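If your schedule permits, I should be very grateful for your opinion on a structural question. Thank you for your consideration; the sequence and its tokens are set out here:

===
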Amino acid sequence: MNENNEHSKNEINKNKYIIKNQTPYAAGILIISLIFAIYLHKKSFDLAFYWGIGLCFGFVLQKSRFCFTASFRDPYLTGSTILTRAVLIAFALTSIGFTIIKYINITQGNPVPGMDYVVPISLATALGAFTFGIGMVISGGCASGTFMRIGEGFQLQVITLIFFIVGSLWGARDYQWWEENFISQGIKIYLPDIFGLFGGLVANLIIIILIYILAKKWEDKKM
């Protein structure tokens, strides 16, 4: 009798961990995504393109578990710097890519894209980074991580997204005040202005490589 009860309990425990076949759900979502892409393409090719890039980007994030929050958090909590180094590699690749884009525009006599986003470093930068850092560690994700986990079904991340939106709207409302009192009084640093276009790229890559080496040594020391 006891053996039968024990066998029944084991069967119940096994059933708890049976993974349901999610292929039909994936196929349905894929079909809906394709239909929506076709609808967007009729409106604008750019919209359909952005939709496709967004889906691919989300897929890569989910499969790689790539998260900016973890890249800053893990070195302190676990000593691992795998994601930290992955972010640094991403920065290096995007630096090279943006330099190529800028060079092409300069040679063609076009305005250099991205110059409007070179803003001064000020107290607002430090306060914003500190506040956002606390928030993303408590919530367990930055913007990309939040969207990724919502897609995975984490309901608590919906709350994070709501307050993410609230905070962004509040920040947009008060941005003018921060601009006049802090941001405009900061120091603007743009490496190509100091070292030239390719010199700035080399300086940027050297900084990234040094941080990468320090991150690897930190992991070897902690792990």
